[in-house]
Amino acid sequence: MLFAKGEFWLAKLVECIPNFSEGRNKDVIDLLVKESKSVPGVTLLDYSSDESHNRSVFTLVGDVEGIKEVAFKLCKVASEKIDMTKHEGEHPRMGSTDVIPFVPLKDITMEECVEISKDVAQRINEELYIPIFLYEESATREERRNLAKVRKGQFEGMEEKLNLPNWKPDFGDAKIHPTAGVTAICARMPLVAFNVNLSTPNVEVANQIAKVVRGSSGGYKYCKGIGVMLNDRNITQVSMNMVNYEGTPLYRVLETIRSEAKRWGVQVVGTEIIGLTPAKALIDSAEYYMQIEKFDYNNQVLENQLLN
Amino acid sequence: MLFAKGEFWLAKLVECIPNFSEGRNKDVIDLLVKESKSVPGVTLLDYSSDESHNRSVFTLVGDVEGIKEVAFKLCKVASEKIDMTKHEGEHPRMGSTDVIPFVPLKDITMEECVEISKDVAQRINEELYIPIFLYEESATREERRNLAKVRKGQFEGMEEKLNLPNWKPDFGDAKIHPTAGVTAICARMPLVAFNVNLSTPNVEVANQIAKVVRGSSGGYKYCKGIGVMLNDRNITQVSMNMVNYEGTPLYRVLETIRSEAKRWGVQVVGTEIIGLTPAKALIDSAEYYMQIEKFDYNNQVLENQLLN
Predict the structure, then answer these.
(1) Contacts A–B by Cβ distance under 8 A
(2) Percentage of residues in chain B with pLDDT exceeding 70?
(3) Which value does ipTM take for this structure?
(4) Could you confirm whether A91 is annotated as catalytic?
(5) Checking CA distances to A114, which of A66, A141, A219, B87 falls within 20 to 30 Å?
(6) A4's torsion region: left (phi>0), alpha (psi -120 to 50) or beta?
(7) Phi/psi class of residue A218: alpha, beta or left (left: φ > 0; alpha: ψ in -120 to 50)?
(8) pLDDT value for B29
């Protein structure tokens, strides 16, 4: 249990969802899991690894001091064990710890989480010599809000990019860590990592469909997505981050993907939720599919009554 | 809030969902609402009234002593204000308080809830002179488990039924309350009251479809249902109780209804959830519609992590 009964109500809770560039080597992943469990006040809720992406996503919840400590410790282990000069995988990446997002969960503001992200960024840079970009709510300028723009060029392109006048890191000199690369850190709202698997091995189809649904190329405002190959299954996937599931609901994007896939003679074979999702993201979708009239999420879901 | 912070963890919680035979007279409904809020340790979570059914469903949560007290007090008000000799409505009914189910919610067993149901049944009979049948988990014999069988004959047929050898009440003499009728009380698992609205005013279609999906006539084991007319909308409805949403999921029954309705040239125009639903009942359905692979409800829903 996260806290002894009774203490629960007193703590501010922060969620942290670091992504590491290791999805295949079980020994390294186990080390990261062990480190996740080594800080009092922090619970590892979930982790998942994707061999095609060669990436792992960890979900932790903790109090402010604990979450800052575990974020640093994990980044340190990753920098020691993951060598980006040897990394290849389907998912874009620039560092052994690629991203560290902080999400306000209970009794804590976005501003406080922005402060947390900056404290952790400073410590990682000073002690591990990894340059840091701040993004999303922590971004120091508008063009850095978007992770895709920050990460563009990936690990291989970072050495050169950091020397461009516009891309000086937020923390540290314009010098990548030779094996750990660069890390992006932010505070943001909860997102849902949502993948849609397609009945085709042609990644160009997934790319085209991703382009249709993602906001940056004319699709849904709160949808970010790319096409990826799943080599182990010989199919492709539209891999997305739903950054505001109320503004852009999951079902709407799924149905659009279904519809677009038909044009290619392709079907949706399944979907995935990676890591945690707020219940409402799925219940809003159930409401759509089941055509529920006048459903009142706050008052009709039993568990919500127990928490309030 | 249900409890002061810190006390929450100490209390056993019971849910109580009394159904009253009044869905039109706002003054009477308001009196019942006021009574619901009059007992410390009890919270009225939800209530809804249906004019076609001429019935209201209240959802309360409380500690053991509080829930017993509020159940009695509500039954008393209903017996004083609702005259069954003048009652008509679409939903089967036998008493001003038609049913009082108790559901274990937190740190309490079904056996304890059966004891609660019997205590309340005894008090209602002794102080209000209403005969009581125990049903579901509280039933004193197998044939009384099923509410439909207990209630068959409805208010108008109860005077005669109580005198049959097999239908002597569990509490009280074989004598109905002249205006409050008979009440059924039980302990049971959480159910979801789920209605499916059809694009036809022909109640025979709704009846046929209800017959297909309900367990008792050959359909899904954990589905109880009837066809009803919604006069205010000039359409019909399959009105159901989903008594085990894991054994018989909501989406499955909905899709069967959709399919059967086609045969009549009829469509599903919408659905309703009445009162509260456990989150899982809807999330399981989202999982089906969205084809989510390997979803782990206990570990991937964010709010579940905060409660454990």
Answers:
(1) 142
(2) 96
(3) 0.76
(4) yes
(5) A219
(6) beta
(7) left
(8) 98
The helix (run of H) or strand (run of E) holding residue A73 is helix A64-81
Give me the numbers of helices (H) and strands (E) for chain A, helices first please.
Answer: 10, 11
Residues in chain B: 308
Terminal-to-terminal C-alpha distance of chain A: 20
- Note whether B254 contacts A290, CB cutoff 8 Å: yes
Considering CB atoms only, which of B1, B275, B292 is closest to A273? B292
B-interface mutation test, from A108, A273, A274, A304, most B Cβ less than 10 A away: A273
Q: Among residues A128, A138, A129, A141, which one has the least CA distance to residue A168?
A: A141
Q: How far is B48 from chain A (nearest CA, A)?
A: 11
Separation between Cα atoms, residue B73 and residue B65, nearest integer Å: 12
Could you read off the pLDDT of A198-226 as tens digits, one per residue? 999 999 999 999 999 999 999 999 999 99
Residue listed under structure tokens 């309705």: B261
Say how far apart CA B207 and CA B229 lie, in whole Å.
Answer: 10
pLDDT digits (tens, 9 = 90+) for B34-46: 999 999 999 998 8
**B278: distance to nearest CA of chain A, Å?**
5
Check A2 against B300: CB less than 8 A apart: no
Report the distance separating Cα A72 and Cα B280, nearest Å. Answer: 35
